[in-house]
Amino acid sequence: MVNIVLPVDFSDSTDQLINGAIKFAKEIGGKLCLIHVAPADIGFAIGDMGFQYFPEVEQNEIKEELLRLNNIQQRVLSEGLECEHLLKQGVAGDIILDYAKEKNAAYMVMGSHGRSGIYDVFVGSLTKELTRRSPIPVLVIPVH
């Protein structure tokens, strides 16, 4: 089975990205390995008293993100594909590359949405980083 790493960020373009990844996985007989990387600072807030940590905020956010990952997994499974998922906190690029290595992935699928800069408008900053650093091919799916 060919493992395909699919990082998801739950942005507006996630549905388009999933559709493209499902199509690709069906074409090559692949298994989707979903990963979502949550920021390490979930639950922290800056206020009058400086930095404060609210563990209940972090727990609620993680629960919500796991639910979303489960929903995506069910969608992929309903298409007749194998699928698993992982949620981690930390630096997205490093964690995604480590996951791809752990899964012995043959491909990574990313979306082309960006956040800033003219290049990043067409190829998101994380996508740009991973296409540069990844030892495996990265399929970039145009999402708008």
From TrEMBL:
SUPFAM superfamilies: Adenine nucleotide alpha hydrolases-like. InterPro entries: Rossmann-like_a/b/a_fold, Universal_stress_UspA, UspA. Residues 3-142 form the UspA domain. Coiled coil: none annotated. Belongs to the universal stress protein A family. This is Universal stress protein. It comes from Kaistella montana.
